[in-house]
Amino acid sequence: MSTCKRFRSIAPQYIKDMESNAKQQEKLALQASLFFDNCKSGSDNCRKELQDAKRYAESVAIITPELQQAFLEMPTTVEELEAAIQDTITQPNGILFLNHNILEEYENRQRKIEALTNKQEADVKELKSLLDEIDALKVKSWINIKAFCNFNFMSSICRSVLFQPFSTSLTNCPFRVVDEINQVWSGGEN
Predict the structure, then answer these.
(1) Which of 74, 112, 149, 186 could form an S-S bond across to 156 if both were Cys, CB 3.0 to 4.6 Å?
(2) Any idea what the Cα angle at residue 127 is, between residues 170 and 143, rounded to 5°?
(3) Percentage helix, strand, coil, to 5, in the chain?
(4) Residue 163: Cβ within 10 Å count
(5) Keywords of this protein's UniProt record, alphabetized (predicted)?
């Protein structure tokens, strides 16, 4: 069999396989083209969102040279950022663990402060009730003295000496007002 005959017998199958491969390659190229278009569209959307976010950020805070320098000093990779976070967490823990009793001492002091605050509140309530009782006793004493004393037979000086401390402690009025009250009781005597 000659080479031509042999070529003619395998050529149709070879051409068919080549056409099938070409169709598969076209299909793959079309899929790759669609994937590329989707990626490009997604990239364009992300770029637009980034520009919008940048414009918004610039409208909220103006980037000064100092702020720009601070951003440049910040970590730029994920690894550097994670290391900075770990350092930030480790630093307070190191201070805390230098003295193991710090937390316990803090809690003890908080309990003492709370107990003292509660005691102070109770003392203030008790003081107010005692002051109310004292005021009630002052009023009762004043009424009793007034009931048992005959003002008409006392001189105005005697009434002033006896009743001025009472009347000034019952009311926060000046001496002059108390003196005028005494004059009224005495019927205008001085």
Answers:
(1) 186
(2) 25
(3) 85, 0, 15
(4) 21
(5) Coiled coil
Residues 67, 74: Cα–Cα separation, whole Å: 11
User: With a threshold of 0.70, does the pTM exceed it?
Assistant: no
Tokens of 107: 């809690």
E strand or H helix at 61: none
Tell me the CA distances in angstroms from 103 to 90, 93, 113, 117, 189, one per residue in order.
Answer: 17, 12, 15, 21, 75
Structure tokens at 27: 């299909």
**Tokens describing residue 97:** 């663990």
Query: Are 186 and 156 a contacting pair, CB within 8 Å?
Result: yes
CA 3 and chain centroid, separation: 91
Q: For 118-154, what is each residue's pLDDT tens digit? A: 999 999 999 999 988 888 887 777 666 665 555 555 5
